[in-house]
Amino acid sequence: MSWSVSRDLDSRSYSPDSKIPHRIQFAPMWSDAAKRIIDIILSTIGLLLLIPLFLVLACVIRWDSRGPIIFRQTRRGRGGRPFEILKFRTMTVLENGATIEQAKPQDPRITRVGRLLRKTSLDELPQLINVLRGEMSLVGPRPHAIAHDEYYGRLIEGYDIRQRVKPGLTGWAQINGSRGPTPELSDMAQRVRLDSWYVENRSLSLDVIIITKTVLGAAWGRGAL
């Protein structure tokens, strides 16, 4: 049995969040260029401001458990092109993405510091480097492990729509509650619906809303990455 992404995600009527206007225009050609400029500026500022925090986290991670400070894993970006995603390491077992088991809330592989980093989404901050490199954007569908792309790509119709744009540090799906593990196939199908809606309705104004909600969520300790 396979889950199919609904074909009725009409930009005139579909919006999981009532605070977002139901009619959002498609992004003009210049929008992608403007989005890239914003990505460069904000990721550069963010990295400079976060240097002290990065140094503290690096020391704490190294003190807490053996292993590298930065976790690297191959993911697929825009057009399916592979890139190496960066995260602060939160687990004792490192996986390359070809075969991977999703981490569960009480997963014994997660370190003590890793639990805090995951709860606050601080483990995702090194991806600002991916954004600066142009491999990711601040806003877009979250990149999944290659094994997950191949698995869900066979079961969920329209799954690859997510790769029409650069993957993001945060996204429409995440601020609408679709984040973390997807134990049921229906959970991933819902995430794909939300990501597909973003791809078809993306705009700079929508990105601002997503970034704002992500920052507010992180400030309240809910996380949105």
Describe the protein in words.
- The chain has 225 residues and is mainly α.
- The chain has one domain.
- The protein is built from seven helices and six strands, in the order βαββααβαββααα.
- The protein has a two-stranded parallel sheet with strand order 1-5. Strands 2-3 form a two-stranded antiparallel ribbon. A two-stranded parallel ribbon has the order 4-6.
- The protein starts with a strand and ends in a 6-residue tail after the last helix.
Strand residue percentage: 5-15%
Tell me, briefly, the overall form.
Answer: globular
Rg result: 17 Å
Please report the total strand number as a whole number.
Answer: 6
- SSE topology string: EHEEHHEHEEHHH
Number of domains: 1
Q: State the helical fraction.
A: 40-55%
Low-confidence stretches: 1-25
N- and C-termini, Cα separation: 29 Å
The structural class is mainly alpha
Instruction: Characterize the main sheet.
Output: 2 strands, parallel
The number of helical elements comes to 7
Strand order of the largest sheet: 1-5
Main location: membrane
Keywords: Exopolysaccharide synthesis, Membrane, Transferase, Transmembrane, Transmembrane helix
Protein name: Exopolysaccharide biosynthesis polyprenyl glycosylphosphotransferase
Membrane topology: Multi-pass membrane protein
